[in-house]
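Researcher: Structure for this, please.
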Amino acid sequence: MSRVLWIDGDFVAVESARVPFLDRGYQLGEGAFATLRAYDGRCFRADRHLAQLRRAAAAFGLSVPRAVDDVLDEAATRTGAADARVRVTVTDTTCSVFAEPMRVPTDDEYARGVAVVTVSARRIPPACFGARDERTAEADRVDVALGRLDASAKTTSYAMQTLARREAEARGAAEGIQLTLDGDLACATMANLFVVRGDALATPSLDSGCRAGVTRAAVLEIAKDVGLVAEERRVAARELRECDEAFLTSARIECLPIASVDGAPVARGSRAHALRAALRDLIRRERVRGS
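Model: Predicted structure, token format:
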């Protein structure tokens, strides 16, 4: 298995790839990216990931070449891995697709769940990016651009997320939970968050500042298949401790149970496992339709 890089139209050796010194993504963090998971060489819902990427890139006046759409599965296949991580990055000088074998949670982590902690960094709500300023036409144009950097945007200005993740890891946790400015649940540093109470499945709504994850959307879609009624709403922090079970979602981890938060145990259930099985079934069905 190997790492694979496609950059500006060609597959090249990872070790020989270079980014121009004056690249604004390198200098200022002006860039956007998307991370996909490929199963046996096929990226799951690539069209949705790329739609989000193009929206975020547009905020910086950047475009994602259509050639990228056609190279994702090939890059994943070239890794030789059954599970591959595929990252698309676009800046003002470069567009790249990087693929490598993906480290996924172990069977033990899925069975036992993982520890999370509440981190100090809060999520900034989308409303903070949408305040209009009517004083100048230029301000209007900036406002429109900032409006594209909503909850679905992943930009190369990722310091807040990585620092929050480091805080969680330094405290011995697998993930960090970020709260809203009002103290409600928003998301994890690299994942979305769900809580289950009875037959109700809840996840923070997008106005919390969480990302509109593709896996998050898929889980909301299939919840009914396992007998759950799903809703996006304001989720109080206490619900993570009072729920019947809780779990994280992302392309990498699928549905990963939470075992504890800030050292306190979280109730265990079977819904996360049922949802992961339903998600895998959805992935298989879409592979068949797309073959």
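Researcher: Any notable elements?
Model: The CA atoms of residues 1 and 80 lie 5 Å apart. The chain is about 35% helix and 25% strand.
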